[in-house]
Amino acid sequence: MNDFEKFAFDEICTVLGNVDTRVDPDIYALSFFVFEIDDDPRYPVLQVGYNTLAQANACASSASSAEEAKWNFAFWLQNELKFIGEPGTQAGMLLEDHLKARGLWYSDEEEAADFEQCMQMADRITACFVEACVRIVQALHASGVIERKFSKPIPILVHELEYYEEIAMQTQRANPSGLAKEFENWIASM
Fold it and tell me: Under a CB-based contact definition with an 8 Å cutoff, are residues 122 and 99 in contact?
């Protein structure tokens, strides 16, 4: 893992350790919601959260199906446990340094001069950030952090607000084999 990933891993371990143990048995999945500050691809952020079976059941009548209530982030608790990568934070600086070291950066001036070229770079920045999130999930599972905290393995969804095959595939890569199958099946059914 690179410095950003190590820092994020440690931050996530800390925040998960602070989740109320009375809620733990009802948590069935964690969310790694990926978004960009002000829709600027140079500033991706990871928002960590979780959902409970009680919340999914409570939302089932409002959703198109029980599966949508369970897997669509719009129906989740929106508990926002931690934001990682925000500009001006230690994680944000580590991320920016990592991206720049890989040649994945552009200035506002470069964007104004060649928007198309910068948007191609933006796609590579997003892909790099998502893959970092995938590696962090893999490390959380491999280290036993998830199973120790929740007394069982639970999937961690690496997602946006929209769901499509790539979201299913990156979540599948992130988690142990078969762990996110129910989520993957829900996306495939759409």
Answer: no
